[in-house]
Design goal:
It is a single chain. By secondary structure, this protein is α/β, with parallel strands linked by helices. Helix content is 58%, strand content 10%. The chain contains 27 helices and 18 strands. Helix 16 crosses helix 19 (434-448) and helix 19 (434-448) crosses helix 20 (463-476). It starts with 23 loop residues before the first strand and ends in a 9-residue tail after the last helix. Residues 1-13 and 16-24 have low confidence and may be disordered.
Length: 698
Amino acid sequence: MRDPQNTHNQDLKGRGSGEDSGLVSATPVARDTPLSDHREQKAEEVVAVREAVEHSRESRTLTSEASYPYVTLQKQITQTLGAQPSTLAIDIISRDRFDADLSIRSPELLSAQGKGTFIKETLPRWKQQLESSDLKTQGVIERVDTKGIFLNVRLSDEQLFRCLSSVQSLKDQYGEGVALAGNRIVVDYSSPNAAKNLHAGHIRSTIIGEALSNIYDACGATVFRVNHLNDWGGFGFLIEAQERTGISLDSNAALASLYALRRTAERASSSEDFFQELTDNEKELLVKCLGEFSNLGELQEQWYAFGEKSKERFIALEQGNAHEVAVWKQMVDLSLADFEKFYSLLGTSHDITLGESYYAGKASELLEESLARGSAFHFSSAEAQAVMATRIEQDEKAAEYERRELESDIGAIVVPLENDKRLVLQRSDGTTIYASRDLAAIKSRGKEFECDEIVYVVGQEQSAYFRDLFDAANSLVPEDSRPSKLTHVPFGFYVNPQKQKLSSRDGASNVMRLLNSSIAHFEKTLRERGTLPEDKVQQTASELATGSITFNDLRRDRVTPVPLKDDLAEQMTEFERSGGAYVMYTACRANSILGRHEGTVPSIEDIDSPQLNEQEIGLIKELVRYPEVVTRAATEHSPTIVVNYTLELARQYNSYYSECPVFRNGVPDIPRLALTQAVNQGLRNALRLLNINCPERI
């Protein structure tokens, strides 16, 4: 245990933040009850999901580096130079600017030898080695030049064109690799609150988390997509309020109205001004829920009494009482059905949904184990006084502000953290907080999924929480039960035109409104174009709309806010500018050109001596870069890298297509046809990673 004088309270809200979401009773869970049965069923589901995901990964052949001619070429160059791969950087460069295709440098040797020696001795030797190698005699390399501290290599047009063979042969698997092969990653994303509406944070988490899961999977990892549902805290209130008000459990909106009622009661009981401003409808609902009151004092008494009844309800739920469990399950199922509508529109599919309820019992076990090991302890009055004395010495004014928190923590179970802080795991009144269940989830996932890493896709406002959570996990969760890596992938907010964060309600409603409006916009556009049969219009419009919203979100760096405009027409224009539809239109244009060719496109290997212009060379190099782009997106946890790639590839192809026709008098130029096929495949593969389903035709 740390010296109590060096501890500092860190009272953080968890990612299910809300006054009730972090607080639940520590009442032991009874065995052989509907609740214990439910948890056992979930445990069985975890096993089934793990096996299904493992089987899916094992049944798919990993795409090795040997499948990519460019990667093979890099290795051949490295071996010819007698260098270690880690000491060389081989980059694709513009032939138009540098009259070369590859640039070779070695920061390590440059530093060790000095610039003069490196330029005078090492580069000329490298140049001679390449010029006398099989790469030169076999026509792979056309020319080698030194340029400052770089060795520039120009490849033959035929060798560049042969690099497209991997796009043609791998098809949908082009871009995949083995950078994360053998890794087992749990991706925790979306994580909505049961009995509430989805808010903007959940929507961004869903979009980013799905794309990241696809990217990790493409790099060879075994990925478990987990929706961590906040389905525990606050349900004592919901069950009691529903029975008193008689609100019908027929939709998630009904449950959200109960939460709104709670918010009203909290504000009215704590503010005379708010109490006086209550509407007749609000008063009627409060009376129905709390009982009669005529003034603020009576309301406060009723609210306190209601709170006690809510606690009793929750204790009954935790103990597995059949009635409370049945109502709780009904409420959770309503929420999941509502959330599924949104997931279905976006094409999101989690492997499993596991709520806080699954980990609540495990949290109590973890606390007991931690107390027994001494990694957590009860915060005493003496320790609080010692901390207070230290704070007064540091800053007397700040210490007075902290006194109330210190006093409330006396008797709480805490874990010491780095930087002289502490994290409360169970409050002095016996209630646990969200962090307890998150810690239990870390331990449970480490065992049940045997994962190496957990990636949490949660808003940036929770960064401090996750830093402390990971610190606590290192102390409380045994190493053999803990993933070796815990990663928080933060993101920014949806904001209004004034750059203010959208409220929870506005965030969800605005995005859904935009989604529906976007579908209508594209339906209208497609019907005006008249290029699709009527039975294809709605599906294509939906793909364009959801793809545009997803692309617009992922185009920005994760931590950058995503602005949403009030004017729908302006927002539709913004979607067009963001490039999602542009990239999809480009893929469809390429697909349409391919449709004009009767039969299959000839094999790249069978196309002799292609004469390539600068645009074709640029396109080939851009396609060759794609596997590296996917790997970098995975290691940097950034779908934006893939988004930017699609924009550049689409831009280059549109410029090329307008100047270099694939068909002349109905006869195809075969190399251009093959290049078009490769571009079409590359764009669709990249969009698929972003969870964007590109139409075949627009």
